[in-house]
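Dear colleagues,

For the upcoming journal club I promised to circulate an example of a predicted protein-ligand complex. I picked one with coenzyme A because it came up in last month's discussion. The inputs are reproduced below in full, followed by the predicted structure.
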Amino acid sequence: MIIRPLHADDTSLELRFLKGLSQQAIYERTFSHRGKLKPGELGRLVRFDVRNQIALVATAAVEGQEEFLGVVRLARSPDGEFEFAIIVHDAWQRRGVATRLMKTMLAAARRAGIKRIGGVTLASNVAMQTLARRAGFAVSRDPEDATAFLLDIGL
Ligand SMILES: CC(C)(COP(=O)(O)OP(=O)(O)OC[C@H]1O[C@@H](n2cnc3c(N)ncnc32)[C@H](O)[C@@H]1OP(=O)(O)O)[C@@H](O)C(=O)NCCC(=O)NCCS
C-alpha cells in the first residue's frame, strides 16, 4: 500500500472506487443515501483548488492495476476552518488503511501550517470515533445535533 496525493488525472480510478463502495459506507461518509453523482461532481472530486484542499489516496496494485483503497480529504470551509473526511473501501477495512491515511493527512496539514482540524461523524459510527481518538482527536457529542459527534485536533 502506498499513500499519495490525489491527482487531476485520477478520474477513472476515483470513479471505480466510488462505484465499488457500499450504501452503508457512503451513508457514513456523506450522511446521505444519495448514490449517484451529480453532473460535474466527479470532476470536482479530482480537480480542486490545492490552496483549499488536501486529498490523499491509499492505493495498491490489484491484479497488476492500481486501485484506490481509501481517500482522506481535508478541506477549508467557507468560514476558514479545516474539516476532514475519510472513507476506506469495504473490502479493505480493518487493515490499518485509515490509520495510515490519517497519519499522513496530519503530517501534510502540519507542513501546510494548518493549526486546527475538525470533523463530524455519526453518533452511531463507533469505528470513526475510535480511529479519531487513536489519531489524537478529541471526540465529543455535538451539543446541537444528537445524531452527530464532533472531532477536533490542534496541531
Ligand atoms: C471508519 C473507517 C474510515 C475506518 O477505516 P479502516 O481502514 O477500517 O480503519 P483501521 O483499519 O485503520 O482501524 C483503526 C481502528 O479503528 C477501529 N475500527 C475500525 N473499524 C471498526 C469497526 N468496524 N468497528 C469497531 N472499531 C473499528 C479499531 O479500533 C481499529 O483498530 P483495530 O483494527 O486494531 O482494532 C471505515 O470503516 C470507513 O470508511 N467507514 C465508512 C465511511 C466513514 O464512516 N467515514 C467517516 C466519516 S468522517
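Two points we might discuss: The mean pLDDT is 94. The pocket of coenzyme A is lined by residues 25, 28-29, 85-88, 93-99, 119, 121, 125-128, 130-131 (CB under 6 Å).

See you all on Thursday,
B. R.
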